UniProtKB/TrEMBL annotation:
It is a multi-pass membrane protein. Residues 133-220 form the TonB-dependent receptor plug domain. Pfam families: CarbopepD_reg_2, Plug. Belongs to the TonB-dependent receptor family. It is found in: Cell outer membrane. The keyword Transmembrane applies. This is Outer membrane receptor protein involved in Fe transport. One of its GO terms (cellular component) is cell outer membrane. Keywords: Cell outer membrane, Membrane, Receptor, Transmembrane, Transmembrane beta strand, Transport. It comes from Ancylomarina subtilis. The lineage of its organism: Bacteria, Pseudomonadati, Bacteroidota, Bacteroidia, Marinilabiliales. InterPro entries: CarboxyPept-like_regulatory, Plug_dom, Plug_dom_sf, TonB-dep_rcpt-like.
Length: 803
């Protein structure tokens, strides 16, 4: 009921928002360009009368509300252009359109442009998202698709938004939206079930990603942090997208006085079209949808209130019919045929609400009180029986692909699951920022209560050629069985303090950051401290360079999933995972044929003091919660990015990495971790037709090493091999149909800002990528690894409009 009430109230506010206005106010708006007519993004606009500020958006537009009846001066500044000041005399209710033209700063222009890109305080990768809707991706529009092309980030599954970073796993990544931590699903075992990422790209204004060595102000996870900020709209905007994979729409607006604004987005996604290309044929019925809204209200210059809510429902239905998979080599060509009965029905419902109260006592301090509630109910139900036939085709000896020359195995298996997990998280956090001349202090405290109730009931029965496997003289055994009723409830208390100190001398510009985190969990009465330190340096002898050193301790309290044993029970001994990060980074800017290039390199070592071992299948992690391990990860990363065409960033990434672990007590020593991917090459490239930028092209290319796999019979005590390398290319073409900046339209078309039509080619080279294996036994006890392939080549049509 509270969800319905929330949606109702949201739309009432949306309906009233345009009617709100303030007394004795006026408005100045316009579009900022340079002398060549190029739109300028990120121009800083200052009202000198009251220090009110804003910036121009991606379309060069700005809007600022000022007090009427007074002479005010606006100051327009940009590091590559001369400062422009303009005085205005405003009447109550008046709207003035002013389109400033900024002149280039001719003095040392090249150095100014380069210096604008070297930022001392940057400690991660900032991503541009303005054209994410034109990027071809089988997973649909998502910020995670861009992340997968960055150094250190790995994901061998185009249908999933999950990713691992520098040898970690999916559960080791922090994700924040407007300073609120968001969570990934628990029961999802395959990418087909996963649904929509919680991040709605239509609502995003900025993206910061750090693959390691991040500050103490972020939370307690081992690998990375993704910091998302949603838009704070200043005027009306809207968009709509329609494709074979679903639809999305968003709307935003602000009241005339700027005190009230809203941002809302709806998404619907279905992957039925893509799943039809999998080896297993059947009736796929995936439906994923969510609604998000952000409402902001400013009481005055000091106080403001922000409400964000997200409601999502992901459903996955599947009735398999049959499957045929050819695999092996020419000299050892095999074929698996399977016939199915039964079905699968999964449902994942979640909602999150957050209320943030901000207080600006002055221009140098900010306090935020954030309350947050998250709840999810996940259900996984299936009963599927399969009969299989494994055949040797002897193609090298004249056999045909559809002609079996020898049967290697005949059998049946029955998969059953009836799992249900309920999780609720409530938290309250107070954080503060204080800026001084050279010092920036940050601190925060947080209390979080979490409750999880989980019913696990799943098993698998296998029979080969009439024999139950494993066999027993007294009963029919199961290949595996997990049954448990689990409940965990506990409170997390955490806090941090952090100081950034900036100074300059004849050597260059420096920033030193030091911070400390504290965390206590009442469930197992465990506490820890995590110190973190970083040092940034831009030398005077070469302003095109930046160096960064980071050292820090990162600890991760065991989540519910990490506390589970293989049999489904909760381990009585919960292990806190711990890692020390050592990072050395270098950034260099240079020019080739008047184009700016940025080369970033990073050398890192992660001393993994304490780990919980796990296995991975598709996107499902199975932890050995009653075991403990130690390990390490070491690597070298490179990223070269440039603008091949103006305002369209492209990049190439290369990652070299090795990670190993030693499971204590198994007497095996160090073995590869499940995420041990030795190399990863990726490219994201944008271009448009020379002389006609209405035709654009986007290419995403990934070539990554195969992950290690262990034979199930003996697990990590037995032999392992590597999956085939992951090779993927997605290509997108788009054509602008309407351009209101160059043409004026009448009728309905006058309401559009732009309209694009796109053609996307997924898996351009139609490569069979392996995501996991189905293990088949014959009567002799031999095991065969049958590859589960990902999606084949598919086309997608897309129509996008902005209003």
């Amino acid at each position: 009921m509270h969800k319905i009430i929330f949606i109702y109230i949201t739309f009432i506010l949306i309906g009233f928002c345009p009617k709100l206005h303030a007394q004795n106010m006026a408005t100045i708006k316009g579009v900022i360009k340079n002398e060549d007519g190029k739109i300028l993004y990120g121009v800083h606009i200052l009202n000198t009368a009251n220090s009110q500020t804003t910036t121009s958006d991606k379309e060069g537009a700005f809007l600022i509300h000022c007090e009427a009846g007074k002479n005010i001066t606006l100051e327009f500044t940009h590091i590559a252009y001369q400062t422009l000041e303009k005085e205005f005399s405003l009447k109550s209710g008046q709207t003035i359109v002013f389109n400033p033209i900024l002149k280039e700063n001719r003095q040392s222009l090249d150095e100014v442009n380069i210096a604008a890109q070297i930022k001392l305080h940057n400690k991660g990768i900032y991503l541009q998202t303005k054209e994410i809707d034109k990027i071809a991706s089988a997973g649909g529009e998502s910020i995670e698709n861009l992340l997968k092309t960055l150094p250190g980030v790995s994901s061998n599954n185009e249908l999933s938004s999950q990713y691992s970073v520098r040898g970690g796993n999916f559960d080791e990544n922090l994700v924040y939206i407007n300073d609120i931590e968001v969570y990934r699903p628990n029961l999802v075992r395959s990418s087909q079930q996963e649904g929509l990422s919680v991040i709605n790209p239509d609502l995003v204004s900025s993206v910061l990603f750090s693959p390691g060595g991040f500050d103490a102000k972020y939370g307690d996870k081992l690998s990375s942090v993704l910091d998302i900020k949603y838009k704070n709209p200043r005027r009306f905007e809207a968009s709509a997208d329609l494709s074979l994979l679903g639809t999305s729409a968003h709307i935003a607006n602000a009241s005339k006085n700027g005190k009230l604004s809203y941002l809302a987005g709806f998404r619907y996604k279905t992957t039925r079209y893509l799943l039809a290309s999998l080896d297993t044929e059947g009736d796929y019925n995936p439906n994923y949808k969510d609604f998000q809204a952000l409402i902001n209200y400013s009481f005055n210059k000091k106080w403001s209130l922000h409400f964000w809510a997200n409601i999502s429902k992901n459903e996955y239905g599947f009735k398999p019919k049959d499957r045929e998979t050819n695999f092996g080599t020419i000299s050892d060509a095999l074929q698996l045929k399977m016939y199915f009965d039964g079905q699968e029905k999964d449902e994942y419902i979640s909602d999150m609400e957050a209320l943030t109260l901000k207080y600006h006592p002055n221009s140098k301090s900010l306090f935020q009180l954030i309350t947050n509630r998250y709840s999810t109910t996940e259900k996984e139900r299936f009963d599927i029986q399969a009969q299989y036939y494994l055949q040797d085709l002897f193609i090298s000896q004249g056999g045909e692909k559809d002609q079996s020359l020898e049967n290697l195995g005949i059998g049946t298996y029955l998969d059953h699951a009836n799992n249900k997990l309920e999780r609720e998280v409530n938290s309250i956090k107070l954080k503060a920022d204080h800026s001084f001349d050279k010092l920036h202090l940050q601190w925060g405290i947080k209390a979080l209560h979490e409750k999880v109730d989980d019913r696990i009931n799943e098993w698998q029965y296998r029979d080969s050629a009439g024999y139950s496997i494993p066999s027993s003289d007294t009963n029919t055994g199961l290949a595996y069985s997990r049954q448990a009723l689990n409940s965990i409830s506990g409170t997390h208390l955490s806090g941090y303090t952090q100081a950034n100190y900036n100074f300059s001398n004849q050597t260059g510009d420096f920033q030193i950051t030091a911070g400390l985190r504290y965390h206590h969990w009442t469930y197992n009465n465990t506490s820890f401290l995590s110190p973190r330190f970083s040092f940034n340096f831009v030398p005077n002898w070469e302003r095109k360079m930046k160096f960064r050193l980071a050292v820090g301790n990162y600890q991760q309290m065991p989540s519910y999933r990490e506390s589970l044993k293989i049999d489904g029970g909760i381990s009585p001994q919960l292990n806190t995972q711990e890692a020390w990060h050592y990072t050395l980074a270098h950034e260099y800017l240079f020019k080739i044929k008047e184009r700016d290039f940025r080369l970033s390199s990073e050398l890192y070592y992660k001393d993994l003091k304490s780990l919980i071992p796990y296995d991975i299948e598709n996107v499902r992690l199975r932890y050995y919660g009653d075991q403990k391990a130690k390990g390490y990860a070491a690597g070298l990363e490179f990223r070269l990015n440039w603008e091949y065409v103006p305002d369209s960033e492209s990049w190439i990434s290369l990652s070299l990495m090795k990670t190993r672990e030693d499971i204590l007590g198994d007497n095996q020593g160090y073995i590869a971790r499940p995420s041990d991917q030795r190399f990863n090459f990726s490219m994201f490239f944008q271009d448009y037709m020379p002389g006609n930028p209405t035709y654009k092209m986007h290419l995403t290319l990934i070539y990554a090493g195969g992950l290690p796999v262990w034979v199930p019979k003996l697990g990590k005590q037995g032999q392992s091999f590597n999956m085939p390398d992951y090779k993927r290319a997605d290509l997108g073409f788009s054509k602008e149909l309407l351009d209101t900046k160059k043409n004026k339209y009448k009728g309905l078309l006058k309401h559009f800002k732009s309209m694009w039509i796109g053609l996307e080619i997924f898996n351009l080279f139609d490569i069979n990528n392996t995501v996991s294996y189905l293990w088949i036994n014959d009567i002799r006890g031999n095991q065969y690894a049958i590859p589960n392939y990902l999606t084949a080549r598919k086309l997608n049509l897309k129509l996008s409009a902005k209003f």
